[in-house]
Amino acid sequence: xxxAALIFSLLAMMxxxxxxxxxxxxxxxxxxxxxxxxxxxxxxxxxxxxxxILNRVFLAAFTMSGLTALIAxxxxxxxxETDASIAMFVATGVYLAGCFxxxxxxxxxxxxxxxxxxISDEEWAVMKLxxxxxxxxxxWNAIRGFAxxxxxxxxxxxxxxx
Length: 162
Fold this sequence. Notes:
This protein is mainly α.
């Protein structure tokens, strides 16, 4: 394996690991924490976190994970590391579909809907809004986390095979 293939493989593994940890934390701490407070407070906090997560560090890790994995896969293939490149190509596909795709198709639109939602003066309506949002959003976030974990394992496998 060339140094370039090693560097891109390790970088992909690190970035995908960061994303795995991000979604794991949202599933196991952030959303349960929000579900433990009043719905109006949870909505306000979620809106704030959704705005703050759109920063350079997060966006770099989120967008560069798939790209570095793809570059690593191509470099591994060019190095003749066929099995390793297959594992890295699959890791790339799993990340792009299960993390990037789900985020763009489900979680971001849900976040935008929550941002645009008019908050009712009726407590039951606020509770309904949050409960429906939290349940669906959390389910899809768990899918993102699982996809990232699978992608992370596949990057490790690619490094092992190389």
